[in-house]
Amino acid sequence: xxxxxxxxxxxxxxxxxxxxxxxxxxxxxxxxxxxxxxxxxxxxxxxxxxxxxxxxxxxxxxxxxxxxxxxxxxxxxxxxxxxxxxxxxxxxxxxxxxxxxxxxxxxxxxxxxxxxxxxxxxxxxxxxxxxxxxxxx
Length: 137
Prior knowledge:
This protein is globular. A five-stranded antiparallel β-sheet has the order 2-1-4-5-3. The longest helix is centred in the last third of the chain and has 21 residues, at 107-127. It is built from six helices and five strands. It has helices spanning 24-31, 55-58, 70-76, 89-93, 100-104, 107-127; strands at residues 2-7, 20-22, 38-40, 63-68, 81-85. The chain has one domain.
């Protein structure tokens, strides 16, 4: 099975486990995965953007990556490795039916969605100054 990951820019692109585990044909049909989307081999975690940019945690997930292991790749004549899929994280999370639906809308998705919302909220709250107490104790 191929692992579908959501990734952010910076030095820590993922947190937790994959969004879903689905077949390679499902990734091709539902996410638009192509052989030309190959990004790197399995020994190197894909990284995007400036690793030191503080915005990487604020903006949340911006990339969809498919991890294709040796058995799945060999079974379909693909190279094992990471593929940077040309769809947005929002598109990857849409319930699109068939094989992808149960795994996408399982516990991993809700964990990812909560992390994403929390990181957005944290960034917004951090940018605000503390409220004034107006001289009251």
